[in-house]
Amino acid sequence: MATGELNPNHYPAQRAAKVVQHHLNTRYGSPYRLFGLQQVHSANAQVVADSGRKYQLQLTVHELISNTQATQKCSAEVVFPGGQEPSPAQVKVACEGLTKNQTLDREEALYQQYRSNQSLLSAHNLPDGHGHMEPDTRPLWHLGIVASSFVMMNESTENTLYNMAQVANISQLHSDNDVLKFESLVLLHDMVSQEIPRWKLLFTWSPAEGVKVLKMEQLPHCHECEKPLGTN
């Protein structure tokens, strides 16, 4: 792995920047707010004392759902720890003007709708093999993407580049408190190995608390599973 100034468009810088994207989604993501990596402007890497590697980045992210396609300039530090035992990357990021409650009114309306439904929600294959989904399932798809960002944050290394490929299924569960509870099977796509790992997730969501992943479990490799056509 190179040290010093990096080409912003090459894999080392892009991998570290993708971790920043996943980190922002775990902190700010919602049914109406998702972040995508727009551009890495500059990047450098250095070996740190514990044999890990630290990346310092200047990048721009954009909000994927917003009608205004709002962008945010961010400064970030990503440390991939060294050692024999794998551990999640450590991320520090500061973005200009980024606040948490920009979609709160829409979230509250959706939350009340989901709470008042006569039956628990469920959806499958978001999107389907042709990239389609029903409009009323899009918030569930977005929730699945946010939840999958917790997995991708946890699993990312200097040798991976994860995207979320598909929410294979998602089901609302009964909840005894104010948060909504969901179980989901998500398919990820590691662009380096071209593998499609499958993860079963248990998570909660409310406008006040955001998305919280309670349990994540990687399922055995499925040889019969077809690779989804689209990735995010």
TrEMBL record:
Domain Cystatin LXN-type per the UniProt entry, residue ranges: 2-104, 122-227
InterPro entries: CYSTATIN_LXN, Cystatin_sf, Latexin
Cross-referenced Pfam families: LXN (PF06907)
One cellular-component annotation, GO: extracellular space
Highest taxon listed in the record's lineage: Eukaryota
GO molecular function, a single term: metalloendopeptidase inhibitor activity
Record bears the keyword Nucleus: no
Swiss-Prot/TrEMBL keywords: Protease inhibitor, Repeat
Family: Belongs to the protease inhibitor I47 (latexin) family.
Protein name: Latexin
